[in-house]
Amino acid sequence: MDFLRPASWEEALAAKAEHPTAVPIAGGTDVMVEINFDHRRPEYLLDLTRIGDLYEWETGEDTVRLGASVPYTRIMEHLRAELPGLALASHTVASPQIRNRGGVGGNLGTASPAGDAHPALLAAGAEVEAESAARGTRLIPIDAFYTGVKRNALQPDELIRAVHIEKADGPQQYSKVGTRNAMVIAVCAFGLALHPATRTVRTGIGSAAPTPVRARAAEEFLNAALEEGGFWDNRKIITPSVAKRFAELCSGACNPIDDVRGTASYRRHAVGVMARRTLTWTWESYRGARRATEGAA
Amino acid sequence: MRVNFTVNGRPQEADDVWEGESLLYVLRERLGLPGSKNACEQGECGSCTVRLDGVPVCSCLVAAGQAEGREVVTVEGLADHARQRSRGGSRGVPLDEAKAWQAGGPGSRTGEEAELSTVQQAFIDAGAVQCGFCTPGLLVAADEMLEHNPDPSDADIREALSGNLCRCTGYEKIMDAVRLAAARQSGEV
Lengths: 297, 189
Prior knowledge:
Chain B: It comes from Streptomyces lucensis JCM 4490. Chain A is 35% helix and 22% strand.
């Protein structure tokens, strides 16, 4: 095994081009587990922790450009207003020790369906900034990023530089089911974002399909129902039958498996419950009755 | 490969380090500092918690090469770290001294003869140590919390220690110990 220690982003891209099998490592919270358990013996480890740019973020007019290695702790502390869904999701990641090291770039690189950030990114709307020495930068829409179980749209010579996440224009919520409140891998998770500017609702489901997914049919149903009832303007309480149907459609968007953490039918059920709850929380917040950052893990 | 870094305030050098090795392994097996414990090796238990450039991390998930040039504080250097914080002027802990570290002396206030941090003494006095395996990680995590949150609520303590598993005590004595340390630190008792 070789330990590659690029001092700059350009050096990192050059190293990845020269050694496409090199495994990038930043927080190490996924990669080191695999090495410790001898599940993986990469020929090259590409250490990204010397590259300061990856630990910075910029808040623009419409988006936050979040460096790939910004630890979850920083997101919780500094980006709660701009990225409330992701900040809530960050708080459900493992423990303080892990949140001090891990970041969204690693979640995307690993692309586990159980990664905590994914539902929040899908709901908020995001693009992954990938770069290679040969072809430069490209932005991959988050909807096209997850291609299979622990597979993503990255080419072998590409590295994740940053994630461009749409700043919240309305309330966002995140919910996660697990056996305890800390140090737990999601049985399933759900993210929901209201986008009053475009009068749309977006969702994200984690751990209930081979990849993180949006519940598109549920979104389309809810968008139409909200429009038809004039809800965005009259800010009335969402009709229970609408919330119920939305929850059913979210359950229907799942394609889960039975495993040690939970059965497929439990996951479908739980996703429906979380969909209804997060819709209620965000909608109450939109109506002005509840703070946007309140929530439950 | 060789790793040069600062451990408990003193420059150290580890040789013949395998590239896939963890910081925890380097501390325990290369430098002979077994205070940081090796249990789950996957970041679940917090027994290997150390400060890396001041930040609490699971040393089992830090690749040895990532520690190059960084500063590490282990439980062996915790008393010195706490002294430096309160009075200034750390001298650092030499490797021989760190290896030989123990809380000496009999009785409930065993710490009187050894140099202990407030948190360490509180763990002894509150009976928060049973088998002791989780203790080093808990001490490092609790000490770091008290550094920036001198008056923590119970919820703050539970949150700060949520990444440290204890299988003996049921956590109540640990909670007592951290409350005691907070009170002593702020001069209330």
